[in-house]
Design goal:
- With 347 residues, the chain is α/β, with parallel strands linked by helices.
- The protein has a single domain, classed as TON_0340 (inorganic pyrophosphatase (n-terminal core)), CATH 3.90.1640.
- It has twelve helices and seven strands.
- Strands 3-4-2-1-5-6-7 form a seven-stranded parallel sheet, with helices on both faces.
- β3, α6 and β4 form a beta-alpha-beta unit.
- α1 packs antiparallel against α10 and α4 packs parallel to α10.
- The longest helix has 25 residues.
């Protein structure tokens, strides 16, 4: 068993090397990843896989918060390409491996677009009360995509309602803007994007109060969960201590999670996690796949999602072109496959 654990740790280290490659030269991933590893111990991707496999049982609901309307004045109806592709990838892995009921929570204007991405990944989008049928019959991959309020008081009420209705066993934030201590959500330029954002912090604060597992995946320091390393953000991230909007709070979020996984691109953190989940569970069907990822990123462009760094509607994510995204996915897939083969040879 110790040899198997060593093998998984070795794979996790390789996956973390890939997910923290600063190809776009943003210069923030190293301090964020180091701070999270110091806080939680490492490797983070193995810890995340282990706690999800432990907590999520067949039939359980899992809330996945994603989507970011990062240009609310220029394009209030669309969001960036980082986050939603990762959300549908993780939903697929949890559906296949854990037989979970994935429920993606996002801004009302992004529901249709994320549904298009989900279909490109092989899902049918259904009402959440119908999810259990596909699990019991094991015939069709399904998930739900639901809107969430942008008013704080309405968000708190909606969080209470859906927790009561669906009783999630885990809540996962992927590239989702987090409120600072003044209740403001900032972009990486330190500007206030609060009015355009669904207040999904309400989900994670309620989950923490109820003892439900929370996981955050982000890349810039302004996402839900980055409160775990707030001091690092204030010291090393531009606008971390003092933002540009005048609220006085900086962009460091205030909502903590049980486990934080920083990555150079949030989607890459998810792909590393899905590769780890597939390796530990032995389910190759759940591995990230470059052909499927190409379909998803093309669907993202067709739905109007844009690269937040390039400022273009295209298949790139956070300044890295489509070809780079597919290469990262393929490398993570291959790392997991080789580790699975090695374990089989040793048995």
């Amino acid at each position: 068993m110790s040899n198997e654990l060593d093998s998984y740790r070795s794979l996790a280290n390789r996956l973390e090397q890939l997910m923290t490659l600063d190809i776009a030269c943003r210069g923030v991933i190293n301090p964020l990843h180091e701070a999270a590893t110091d806080l939680h111990g490492g490797p983070l991707v193995l810890k995340a896989a282990e706690i999800l496999l432990q907590c999520v049982k067949p039939g359980d609901s899992v809330f996945i918060a994603t989507g970011w309307v990062d240009q609310p004045l220029v394009d209030p109806g669309h969001g960036e390409t980082d986050g939603p592709p990762g959300a549908v990838a993780l939903a697929r892995a949890l559906r296949l491996i854990c037989k979970a009921r994935p429920i993606i929570l996002t801004d009302a204007c992004l529901v249709d677009g994320i549904s298009q991405l989900a279909r490109a990944a092989g899902f049918q989008c259904v009402e959440p009360e119908h999810l259990h049928y596909s699990i019991s019959m094991n015939k069709l991959l399904t998930l739900s995509v639901l809107p969430f309020p942008d008013d704080w008081h309405a968000a708190q009420a909606e969080a209470e309602r859906i927790f009561y209705e669906f009783s999630p066993s885990a809540c996962i934030a992927i590239e989702r803007g987090g409120m600072n201590e003044q209740g403001v959500i900032h972009n990486m330029a330190g500007m206030d994007t609060n009015a355009s954002q669904a207040k999904l912090d309400a989900i994670f604060r309620l989950a923490s109060n109820k003892g439900v597992l929370t996981l955050g995946i982000g890349d810039g320091g302004n996402e839900i969960g980055m409160a775990n390393v707030a001091e690092c953000i204030r010291r090393f991230i531009p606008f971390g201590e003092k933002c540009a909007c005048g609220c006085g709070g900086g962009l460091a979020p205030a909502t903590k999670v049980d486990l934080l996984m920083p990555a150079a691109v949030s989607n890459w953190g998810v792909y590393a996690l899905t590769a780890m989940l597939a390796a530990v569970s032995g389910m190759k069907e759940a591995l990230p796949d470059s052909a499927r990822e190409k379909r998803v990123l093309e669907a993202a462009a067709a739905a109007g999602f844009h690269d937040a760094i390039y400022g273009e509607v295209c298949g790139s994510v956070d300044g890295s072109p489509l070809e780079t995204q597919l290469a990262i996915v393929q490398l993570m897939r291959e790392a997991a496959i080789q580790q699975i083969k090695l374990l089989k040879r040793k048995k």
